UniProtKB/TrEMBL annotation:
Organism: Planotetraspora mira
Pfam families registered for this protein in UniProt: Peptidase_M24
Keyword Protease: yes
Protein name as annotated: Aminopeptidase
Domain of life, source organism: Bacteria
Keywords, ordered alphabetically: Aminopeptidase, Hydrolase, Protease
Spans through the membrane: none
One MF term in the entry's GO annotations: aminopeptidase activity
UniProt lineage: Bacteria, Bacillati, Actinomycetota, Actinomycetes, Streptosporangiales
Amino acid sequence: MTSAIPMPAPGHMGVDYEQRVDFGRLRDYRLSRARASLDASECGAFLLFDFYNIRYVTQTWIGGALGDKMTRYALLTRGGEPMLWDFGSAARHHRLYSPWLDPANCHAGMLGLRGAIAPTAGLMEDAVRQIKGLLEDAGLADAPVGVDIVEPAFLFEMQRQGLKVVDAQQLMLDARQIKSSDEIMLLTQAAAMVDGVYQDIVEALKPGIRENEIVALANKRLYEMGSDQVEAVNAVSGERCNPHPHNFSDRLIRPGDQAFFDIIHSFNGYRTCYYRTFSVGSATPSQRDAYTKAREWMDASIRMIKPGVGTDQVAAVWPAATEFGFENEMAAFGLQFGHGLGLGLHERPIISRLNSMREPVELQVGMVFALETYCPASDGFSAARIEEEVVVTPDGGRILTLFPAQDLVVANPY
């Protein structure tokens, strides 16, 4: 069962009269989880390029524009402190403002900006030689190195220099799947910001406004409220609802449209994935029926959320792909769907008939994930899309996403 008591979503500031997010405790928790995962593995070190993993281990961030260019990397060795190679002057900034890192471990680094500087320039060769030397100094020369994601040229260079490379992404995702109280509070705060944006969207959702204008409105409001990254806003209306295109356009909203939105942003790194569906001015019986079904499927999955339940049991309460117009589960992937939320948008557990039936995962206290349902309408073009974010507690699931969605909301009714 779900609790009616909302999760705490305090203001952005630290204050002396309430217990809010303790960022020192958050940093300690994340690094300890990563270290425990490393110690339990065969690896002597983790070499991390995934910018969510880098943030989790080093507690640093420089933004998506540079963070995803495969240039930043971090090394965590057994018994050692995190070492970071960052984009140019960012390394000097960390030495000044990130005192939890040893200044000697904050280096400027450059590997090639996803191939823009060719491997023949030698930057990768030099970096691997330095990493190999650090592993030798730590007595880890013969141990495998766990890598999460990597450019082929860098992988080949590691192998050429005699390093044994194994997969660390699975180990880091295992570390990240159980959220601390501080992480849950940040996830709740991020969801609360979207609660407010949906109020703005309902008020603006009138004939004549374009999908891209709604996207602009959401971006503006989120950044005003303190978002550090608006990753995506889907705005889908009218005949674009079925099939779900997973993007927005410049389509004009028209009277009687069904429209759904997905707001994906982060607050202090912690993300939302938060759909809501509305009708514009009025709703047809077909649109209401589709919404009712999507809500029933959602409620059935929420009732399953409790420690010890398998993700296969959750996925089983959703309709099979062939029951709502798709030929197989691959074609319908992401429509009846659950995915972990944290520093990344798609963490563990992933809940779907595509994968959960063959490899179920047991739900544990501290997991946070989004549940998504989708139902096409009988009119052939409308559709309902609902998403709720849930944290697993000892007593069951608690909902983070509070904008009303039990019944179809008609925006600006005639």
